[in-house]
Specification:
Elements (H helix, E strand, L loop, with lengths): L2 H14 L6 H11 L6 H9 L1 H11 L8 H20 L1 H7 L3 H21 L12 H11 L9 H11 L4 H27 L8 H29 L2 H19 L8
Helix pairs in contact: 1-2, 1-11, 4-10, 4-11, 5-8, 5-10, 7-12, 8-9, 9-10, 10-11
Amino acid sequence: MTLWQTIILAIVEGLTEFLPISSTGHMIIVSSLMGISQFEFTGTFITSIQFGAILSVVFLYWRRFIQSFDFYLKLFVGFLPFGIAGFLLKDIVEELLKSVTVVAVMLILGGIVLLFIDKFFNDKPDSDSTPTFKQAFYIGMFQCFALLPGISRSAATMVGALTQGFNRKSAAEFSFLLAVPTMFVITAYQMLKSYKTIRSEDVDMLLIGNAVSFIVAIAAIKFFVGFLTKYGFRVFGIYRIIVGVIILALIAMGFEINLV
């Protein structure tokens, strides 16, 4: 992997991780177009640079992480359904991850949902994005949909928060916060499986990738909160459908697209 490929993938990760557009779908397209999706280190790299994205949330919302122990318990309750379902369905999820077609179809289906979600949940005035334990659990149940590759963890949790009475801004913010334990566990698990394959010359690329994803994710989060509050989810729904159709079109034209 070259320096420019490292930077491009890190930018894509930072831009897409917290937006409801599926970072998985974008990583498939970008890594395949660059011809590096088949390399083992590519998968390790993409997994590891999620840590930079995690740190961006802690950096932006650090006050939330020092407010009370109750906050951590609610994050745990929100993470629990995903953690249990991921453990029980691990083999099924890994099998689904092998299918680029599944990712493309989920992108399109999720996009259709986002086209109409604003009509079902009218936006409300700003409110605290800290849920009750019951609300955190229900949002966590929605996060389980993200086990289907292409659904988007952020999209699933934001829709879940809307069903619990959150406005768009608060739904997005709690989605970011819930991403911290969820992505940390996923990243730690994947790195534990692959750390032995990391060579000494790869360490610089990992450090650069995490630094770039951290900076880009901060900008993406700030942009997204303002954009979502003003315009809603519809544009992201349209974008998801376009990306899903592009992937299906590439498959139909015989392009070899691999999941990293």
